C-alpha cells in the first residue's frame, strides 16, 4: 500500500474534473494512483499540472525523444511505477518499440541507437550520476538540438527525477495495466559436479 492513501471515488466534482485533466488523451483507465495521492494536496497538484502538462502536450522535443528521456530517467531512478505507465501509454503512442523501451533499462548505450538518441541517453546517464553535463555530452546534444530544445531537455529530465522521488518515496505499486519493468537476467546456476559415487561435490 502507498504510504499516503490515494483518494477514492466518488470524488467531489472539482477533484473529478482535475483528475480527468491529468490523464493523457486516449488513455481509458481510471486516474493514476500518483494523481490521486497528489490531490491530497490539491493546491500543489494544480501547480504541478501546469509544468507536467506543458512538457507532455506543448513541448518542443519530438515525442519519441521526450519519451526516451522519460524512460531513461525513470529507469535510472529505479522508478518502476512511472516507467511502466509511460511504456504502456505515451511511449507507445510516440512509436517507441517494446525492444527500445526495454533497452532504456539496460546499462550502457550500444551502437544500435541513432546518434541523437545515443546522445540523449548518455546525457541522462551523466545527469543521473553527477548532476552535471560534461562538455563532450553537451556538444553531442548540440549537434541535434537547438538551444530551446536543450533547455527543455534539462527541465524534462529534472521533472521526471522529481516524479521518481514521489513515486518511490510514496511506495506506489505499479498500475495493473502498466508495462512490467524489465527484470535483470539471472546468471546461470553452475553445473553440479558429482563424484564417481554420486555424491555432490559443489
From TrEMBL:
Residues 179-202 are annotated as: Disordered. InterPro entries: AhpD-like (IPR029032), CMD-like (IPR003779). GO terms for molecular function: peroxiredoxin activity. It holds the Pfam family CMD. Residues 42-120 form the Carboxymuconolactone decarboxylase-like domain. This is Carboxymuconolactone decarboxylase family protein. Residues 183-202 have a biased composition (Basic and acidic residues).
Amino acid at each position: 500500500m502507498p504510504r499516503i492513501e490515494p483518494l477514492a471515488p466518488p470524488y467531489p466534482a472539482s477533484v473529478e474534473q482535475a483528475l480527468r485533466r491529468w490523464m493523457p488523451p486516449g488513455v481509458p483507465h481510471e486516474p493514476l494512483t500518483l494523481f490521486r495521492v497528489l490531490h491530497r494536496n490539491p493546491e500543489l497538484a494544480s501547480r504541478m499540472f501546469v509544468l507536467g502538462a506543458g512538457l507532455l502536450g506543448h513541448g518542443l522535443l519530438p515525442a519519441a525523444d521526450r519519451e526516451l528521456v522519460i524512460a531513461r530517467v525513470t529507469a535510472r531512478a529505479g522508478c518502476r511505477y512511472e516507467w511502466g505507465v509511460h511504456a504502456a501509454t505515451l511511449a507507445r503512442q510516440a512509436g517507441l518499440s517494446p525492444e527500445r523501451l526495454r533497452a532504456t533499462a539496460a546499462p550502457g548505450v550500444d551502437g544500435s541507437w541513432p546518434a541523437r538518441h545515443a546522445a540523449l541517453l548518455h546525457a541522462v546517464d551523466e545527469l543521473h550520476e553527477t548532476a552535471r553535463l560534461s562538455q563532450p555530452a553537451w556538444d553531442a546534444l548540440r549537434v541535434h538540438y537547438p538551444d530551446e530544445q536543450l533547455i527543455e531537455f534539462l527541465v524534462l529530465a529534472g521533472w521526471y527525477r522529481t516524479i521518481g522521488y514521489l513515486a518511490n518515496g510514496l511506495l506506489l505499486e505499479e498500475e495493473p495495466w502498466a508495462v512490467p519493468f524489465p527484470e535483470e537476467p539471472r546468471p546461470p546456476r553452475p553445473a553440479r559436479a558429482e563424484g564417481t559415487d554420486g555424491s555432490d561435490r559443489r
